[in-house]
Amino acid sequence: MKMKRYYFIKVIGKFLHRGRASQKEHINKWFRKQGIEIGENCSIFSNIISSEPYLISIGDNVTISNSVQLITHDNSIIKASNAKYTDIFGKINVGNNSFIGAHAIILPGVSLCDGTIVAAGSVVTKSIYSEYSIIGGNPAKIIGTWSDFLQINDKYGIDVSSMSNDKKREYILGNPEYLKSR
């Protein structure tokens, strides 16, 4: 039911609020009502609701990409303990100015300090205490810093925030030197 409400709010937000900022804040208010602590100016593109939303805390200026999972419990102890216990719980904290890439998974008890960038598809099993780090992999580990990232990718950066989708498409396709290849 919560999933249906999330998508309903997301769709209605698109029609009621012309600006992306209005829709973004409308979605954040809904997450706050569910019990998640969310700072200011956050962009959340996933349904991050878990069965324990009150165990999730997100700082200011955080972006959470699509299909990210914030998992606040681990039920596997039920097997290992022969049903003596049902769950292990852990709070998830995401520091200010952080970015979590698409399809990343954050496990119970993990804290990400300010400025953490989580690479797409990563599984974060341990807390990160080094500010402005880039982490990636399964299990995720530090793979660089913001300055390393900028040094490698500075020539590919484009600001499309004020462009319509048509203008963005035209600009990107008209400037192939900005397309990164691996």
UniProtKB/TrEMBL annotation:
**Sorted alphabetically, which InterPro entries does this protein's record hold?**
Hexapep, Hexapeptide_acetyltransf, Trimer_LpxA-like_sf
Q: What class of enzyme is it?
A: transferase
Q: What is its EC number?
A: 2.3.1.89
Q: Name one Pfam family in it.
A: Hexapep_2
SUPFAM superfamilies linked:
Trimeric LpxA-like enzymes
Alphabetized, the UniProt keywords read: Acyltransferase, Transferase
What is a single molecular function from GO for this protein? tetrahydrodipicolinate N-acetyltransferase activity
Q: What's the protein called, per UniProt?
A: 2,3,4,5-tetrahydropyridine-2,6-dicarboxylate N-acetyltransferase
Q: Could you tell me which species this protein originates from?
A: bioreactor metagenome
